[in-house]
Hints:
CATH topology: Rossmann fold
Low-confidence stretches: none
Mean pLDDT: 88
Amino acid sequence: xxxxxxxxxxxxxxxxxxxxxxxxxxxxxxxxxxxxxxxxxxxxxxxxxxxxxxxxxxxxxxxxxxxxxxxxxxxxxxxxxxxxxxxxxxxxxxxxxxxxxxxxxxxxxxxxxxxxxxxxxxxxxxxxxxxxxxxxxxxxxxxxxxxxxxxxxxxxxxxxxxxxxxxxxxxxxxxxxxxxxxxxxxxxxxxxxxxxxxxxxxxxxxxxxxxxxxxxxxxxxxxxxxxxxxxxxxxxxxxxxxxxxxxxxxxxxxxxxxxxxxxxxxxxxxxx
Length: 272
């Protein structure tokens, strides 16, 4: 049989091509990472990612939204200011606590939070279908078809997911600088082709996120160190040398001296 995009088993390829580090659903890993992850996302993501995502979702004010893998509220909080209500779920209790604290600080009362994983019985947790379901940068599983089917079963009108394009947020030059090989997760084409096999002709829009500026070398190092799990002292020394060699003055701020845009694919479709 001739292999084509229609005959390839995209779920199997997704599972096969996911690197070992990308297969973790380790709740403790995300609990540890939650505070730094949340502050990094809140500082850098709004103009370049959140606002374009919300424009693509295009949710009317009377809609309800289910945000799967909500983190500390990157999308849930701005969505709550634009729609009737949001249910935000995440399997990390620290992420949920950070979101609840943010709701208190910003006086947001229309977000319901649930501690839940992809594998949990959402109905048993009191989660009902919503007008739209989103999964932003959170498709973490060896069975993407099951995830997509689950999202659709809880959506009345629209589903919107986002996946990395190419290397996504990872910088190959940083990996090379510390002597590692970057083995990225499967990108959006796996999901799009899988949807096509499921009879879903989804829309795609590419969101491009620029590299942020930094207040100095230490801030720049901390901003990129998250890419390297369990970084060794020698690797951190190499990372610091790399960052120092590539920082370029930009007024009172600093930027990396090469172009490394991060691209995400927002994939959405309506249910009829």
